[in-house]
Design brief:
Distance between the termini: 66 Å
Number of strands: 5
Strand content: 5-15%
Number of helices: 4
Shape: globular
Largest sheet: 3 strands, antiparallel
Oligomer: single chain
């Protein structure tokens, strides 16, 4: 950005926002969102695993993949690794079913998974049987069952506390 454009917008060359006073004496503030690499608010919601991120409100780990170019949730999980394994199961499913389309790709490759693809060999018969929608629903149910069991455990511990307080 040129220095002239920065002066018009009210931003200094180093990207810091500045207030400026218009001719009428009104103070105007130019707000600019920091989008520099490495600049953050101190919160990180990314994962070390492919296809996984942490959700903001619940702090649970969500697995996602892209279907027809759009992000599709595979569910939210308590542990980052469980979310990564859900993503891996979808990648194995895609590889298995892409063999129907591209016969030369009939073997499983380890390039698209977070963990060694051999860890999913026992899941192959079930993955062959399921449709993609059925697998998505199954993985989402796993995530919801974790959330439900956590909620039940939290309510149970609260009821113990209230009983003890009486």
């Amino acid at each position: 950005m040129s220095k002239q454009l920065q002066a018009i917008r009210g931003a200094s060359p180093d990207g810091i926002n500045e207030d400026k006073v218009s001719e009428g004496g009104t103070r105007q503030s130019v707000h600019k969102v920091a989008r520099q690499k490495g600049v953050s608010s101190g919160r990180t919601y990314t994962s070390k695993y492919r296809g996984v991120h942490q959700t903001f409100p619940t702090k649970r780990w969500e697995a996602q993949f892209r279907r027809a170019g759009k992000p599709t949730s595979l569910g939210c999980f308590d542990n980052e690794e469980e979310a990564a394994r859900a993503y891996d199961k979808m990648m194995v499913w895609i590889e298995l079913h892409s063999a129907d389309i591209r016969p030369t790709m009939g073997h499983l490759k380890g390039g698209g998974t977070n963990f060694d693809v051999r860890e999913y060999l026992e899941d192959v018969p079930e993955l062959n049987r399921l449709s993609q929608d059925e697998l998505v629903q199954m993985l989402r149910r796993e995530g919801r069952s974790q959330a439900a069991s956590n909620t039940a455990a939290a309510l149970k511990s609260r009821s113990r506390i209230s009983v003890c307080a009486k």
